[in-house]
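Good morning,

Attaching, inline, the backbone tokens for the sequence recovery test we're adding to the shared suite. The designed sequence is right after.
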């Protein structure tokens, strides 16, 4: 059972509709799905059970349910309930309420573990107008909460009361069919929040699923709307995908859809040259496929590394020059112009320039067989420049496998220093002179 686009579109046009307008959900009992409590963090189970035992509904929601159904380990777990934030706060002393429009509660546990709990929402924070965001319109029902989410595969609930899966939006069918589909009308949803287009491509890249035809067409038609979003928000979303371990397929989809050119206009002129676009896509895929394998092996890289790895081959292909032969006076203006739409801080641009120039010096030394000078090795960015130079030079696969193997080795935690007992200084008792007898 799935929800028709016409029905959801009507609900989008009338956000105050009653719950009776939603189709009845599919409820999958525990015996018919693969989610086990053994795969859910203990702290998350504690929160779910306390809410349930206090008479509230308590659901595991969103990407964690999707990942568990796909037999993957979720990065984090989100909980939704019908308890209001202050009610949740009273149940958990080790918690705090955050957010303004849509408040949620963070519950803290030992070891830095944080579990986020939200109240069922009536709509997304990016939907509606100010008069629809009054406090009495904020909270909703499970059905309303499911329909305000972005993708069908992210709209599934796991009910701790009977361990069942609740599907209001046809997410189970789309998981079986390996399909990425927006809940409701893609045109309406993308107009309300264009960043949802990035999320569509992100989940398609990470899961390997196909994108629904209507969703893909809406992305092609409305990609220009991404320029209306907050630049820092778009920048953070892109960085999240660079670090995801699936950046190569993500960049391929971004180039194919034209969404990347809509965000970074310096790519728009290149799209007129099909040969240049094909070469650019092939080069970026080769570089970021290697980066993905290193990220999956737990290698940590800075934000500057990802942006430099993206920009260097773009400029080299545009100028039809090797990276090490690009005139130095063109690098600064190019980086400035390329990153202008994302409003990078000056300090971040300087980090990218330093990494770029250091990488060029390493490339020249590797090409000539010269020894790297000590002053170059002392730079903070040298390890990343050394790695980036080998990526651009096309080092053999064995080279990166060795790096990945070293990154996967987690060093043992240092033993706490032995506590030393403080030695008390020698104490002298004052001796009073006895009066002469």
């Amino acid at each position: 059972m799935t929800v028709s686009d016409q029905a959801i579109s009507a609900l989008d046009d009338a956000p105050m509709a009653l719950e009776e307008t939603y189709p009845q959900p599919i409820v999958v009992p525990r015996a018919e799905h693969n989610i086990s409590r053994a795969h859910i963090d203990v702290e998350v189970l504690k929160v779910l059970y306390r809410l349930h035992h206090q008479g509230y509904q308590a659901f595991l929601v969103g990407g964690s349910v999707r990942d568990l159904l796909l037999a993957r380990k979720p990065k984090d777990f989100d909980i939704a309930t019908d308890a209001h934030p202050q009610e949740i706060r009273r149940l958990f002393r080790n918690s705090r309420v955050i957010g303004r429009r849509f408040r949620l509660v963070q519950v803290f546990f030992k070891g830095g573990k944080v579990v986020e709990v939200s109240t069922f929402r009536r709509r997304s924070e990016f939907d509606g107008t100010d008069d629809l965001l009054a406090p009495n319109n904020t909270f909703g029902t499970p059905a309303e909460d499911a329909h305000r989410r972005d993708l069908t595969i992210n709209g599934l609930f796991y009910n701790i009361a009977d361990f069942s899966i609740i599907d209001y939006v046809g997410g189970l069918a789309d998981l079986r069919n390996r399909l990425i589909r927006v809940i409701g009308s893609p045109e309406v949803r993308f107009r309300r929040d264009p960043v949802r287009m990035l999320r569509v491509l992100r989940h398609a890249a990470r899961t390997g699923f196909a994108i629904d035809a209507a969703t893909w067409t809406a992305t092609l038609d409305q990609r220009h709307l991404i320029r209306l979003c907050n630049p820092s928000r778009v920048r953070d979303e892109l960085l999240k995908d660079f670090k995801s371990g699936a950046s190569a397929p993500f960049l391929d989809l971004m180039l194919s859809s034209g969404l990347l050119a809509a965000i970074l206009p310096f790519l728009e002129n290149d799209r007129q040259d099909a040969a240049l676009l094909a070469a650019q896509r092939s080069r970026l895929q080769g570089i970021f496929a290697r980066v993905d394998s290193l990220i999956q092996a737990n290698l940590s890289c800075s934000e500057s590394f990802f942006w430099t790895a993206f920009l260097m081959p773009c400029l080299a292909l545009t100028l039809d020059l090797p990276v090490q032969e690009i005139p130095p006076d063109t690098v600064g203006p190019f980086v400035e112009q390329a990153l202008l739409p994302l409003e990078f801080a000056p300090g971040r641009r300087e980090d990218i320039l330093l990494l770029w120039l250091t990488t060029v010096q390493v490339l020249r030394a590797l090409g000539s067989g010269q020894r790297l000078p000590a002053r170059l090795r002392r730079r903070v960015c040298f390890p990343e420049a050394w790695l980036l130079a080998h990526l651009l030079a096309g080092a053999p696969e064995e080279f990166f496998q060795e790096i990945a193997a070293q990154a996967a080795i987690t060093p043992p935690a240092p033993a706490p220093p032995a506590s030393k007992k403080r030695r008390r200084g020698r104490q002298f008792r004052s001796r009073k002179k006895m009066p002469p007898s």
